[in-house]
Amino acid sequence: ADHLHEGRRKVDGVEVSSFPHNHPGGCFGYCFAKGGCKIVYSTDNELEIQAGELFPDLENTSPLRRMPEALVQAVQDADLLIHDAQYDEKEYATKRKWGHSSCFSATDLAIQARAKNLALFHHDPEGTDRAVDEKVASCRQRALRLGSPLKICAAREGVEMKF
C-alpha cells in the first residue's frame, strides 16, 4: 500500500507522482503538488545532448537544447525544479553517459517547462563552492540571454523556500 500506484499517490493531501530518469541502473524523479504549488525533485537524470546541438557551449551562445517531451510535461509550470546539474559544459564533455547533466541542459529544461525557480543539484563531490557559484552565474546569464524570467540558485542543505 506504500507504493505509487501507476506512478501516482496522494499522501497527506499531497499529490505525488513519479517519472523515469535517464540514469544507468534506472532512477525516478518525483513531483509533489498541493494547493496549486508544484515542486519537482529530479536528481540522477542525464539530459543528453541531441544531434546537431552546439556542445560544449563554452561561450554560452547556443539556442535552447531539445528536451524529451514527457520530461517537459512532468516539470511543466513547476514552482520549483530541483534538478541534477553536476557538471559545467567542459566537465560534461568527459562524463557523458554517467547519468548526470550539464547545468546548461538543466537550465534549458526549466525554461522549456516554464518553471519559476531552478535549484541546481547533485553538486560534484570534488567541486568547490566557487565552482558551484560559477555554474549558477553562467546559468543565470543563459536564462537572461534566452529571455527567461527563471530564477536560479544552488541547492544546499538547510535552505527553505516558501511559495
Give a quick set of tags describing it.
163 residues, globular, alpha/beta, seven-stranded mixed beta sheet
Task: Lay out the secondary structure.
Elements: E1 8-11, E2 14-20, E3 28-34, E4 37-42, H1 69-75, E5 80-84, H2 89-92, H3 103-112, E6 117-121, H4 129-145, E7 151-154
Parallel strand pairs: 4-5, 5-6, 6-7
Antiparallel strand pairs: 1-2, 2-3, 3-4
Helix pairs in contact: 3-4
| Average pLDDT | 94
Strand order across the biggest sheet? 1-2-3-4-5-6-7
**Major sheet details:** 7 strands, mixed
Number of strand elements: 7
The helicity comes to: 10-25%
SS summary, helix count? 4
The helix-and-strand class reads alpha/beta
If you compute it from the alpha carbons, what radius of gyration comes out, rounded to the nearest whole angstrom? 15 Å
What sort of overall outline do the alpha carbons produce when their principal axes are compared?
A: globular
Binned strand content: 15-25%
Which residues form runs of ≥5 with pLDDT under 50? none
N-C termini distance: 30 Å
Order of helices and strands: EEEEHEHHEHE
